[in-house]
Fold this sequence. Notes:
Blueprint: H1 4-28, H2 32-65, H3 74-90, H4 97-122
Helix pairs in contact: 1-2, 1-4, 2-3, 2-4, 3-4
Amino acid sequence: MDGLREIYTRLKRMIYFILAAFVIGWGFTPYQEVFAGLLIGTLFGIYNMWILVRRMEKFDRAVAEGSKVRSLGTALRFASGVAAVAMALLFAEHIHLVSTVIGLMIPYVLLLAERIVYHVKHH
């Protein structure tokens, strides 16, 4: 099975393509607010994924060393999601709220899909 860092690197590469598609959609369609929300949400979502990967690596080291296990950064990731939504509310005329929330979930949906494809291929 792939390590968490390799999975994150693959997801990041996929998300860069998705972000490029959102930028094209923002620039060339009349749905600029929707694509702006998707962009903001996806950027905050990849930040949340980065926090999760970093904390999981620290968690693994702590378990291996037998030291006390710390939090996985749930509060920080939650605060990041709140910040994305607050930004969408603050700039409501430019950023669509629902698409921001959808964008926050894109990295997790990609992670789920990537793991399903991995297990179908290898089992």
